[in-house]
Design brief:
The protein is mainly α and about 160 residues long. It has one domain.
Length: about 160
C-alpha cells in the first residue's frame, strides 16, 4: 500500500479501520506503514519544511479521542486510541512547538504530557455548571482514562 500520497486525515482513518480489522497481520502492517509516514512527515515539519498540517485542535482530537455524550463511550476503544497516541509519531499538528512538546513515541515525556492533558480536561469539566449531566459523563470517562494511563505509566 502506498501511504505517502494520502492526507493525514486519510491516514488516521486507515489507522482507525485497522484497530478493528479481523486480520491482525494486515492491521499491524497498516499501522506500521502509517506510523512510518507520520514519522517522516513529523521530521520534515519539525525541521521547517512546509507540510500539510492535520486538522484539529490538538493531538487528542486529531486521533479522534472524544468523551462524553458525543464521544467514544466504550472504555476499551478509548484505551486503544490512547495507546495509538502513546505509540505513534505525532502527525504535523497546530505548529512545530506544539508537535515537539509531545516528545517521542512511548517516551516518558509523551506519557506525562498525555496524562497531564487528560487531568486538565477532567479538572476543567469539574468547574462547568451548564449541562452538568453531560460534563459529569465526560469527566467520568476522563477519570477512567487517567486510571488506565496511570496503570500503564507505572509499568
Amino acid at each position: 500500500m502506498n501511504v505517502q500520497h494520502h492526507t493525514n486525515e486519510s491516514l488516521m482513518t486507515m489507522l482507525h479501520n485497522a484497530i478493528n480489522h479481523p486480520n491482525k497481520a494486515k492491521a499491524e502492517l497498516t499501522k506500521t506503514q502509517v506510523y512510518a509516514e507520520w514519522k517522516k512527515r513529523n521530521e520534515l515539519f519539525c525541521s521547517g519544511s512546509d507540510v500539510e498540517i492535520m486538522p484539529g485542535e490538538g493531538l487528542l482530537s486529531a486521533f479522534r479521542y472524544r468523551v462524553g455524550d458525543g464521544g467514544v463511550t466504550n472504555a476499551s476503544k478509548r484505551q486503544q486510541i490512547l495507546n495509538h497516541v502513546l505509540d505513534a509519531p505525532v502527525p504535523p499538528l497546530v505548529d512545530r512547538q506544539y508537535t515537539k512538546k509531545w516528545g517521542s513515541p512511548n517516551s516518558r515525556k509523551r506519557k506525562s504530557t498525555l496524562l497531564q492533558t487528560i487531568k486538565s480536561l477532567a479538572s476543567g469539566a469539574g468547574k462547568r455548571t451548564s449541562t452538568q449531566a453531560s460534563y459529569s459523563r465526560a469527566r467520568s470517562h476522563w477519570e477512567a482514562d487517567m486510571m488506565y494511563l496511570e496503570s500503564i505509566y507505572a509499568g
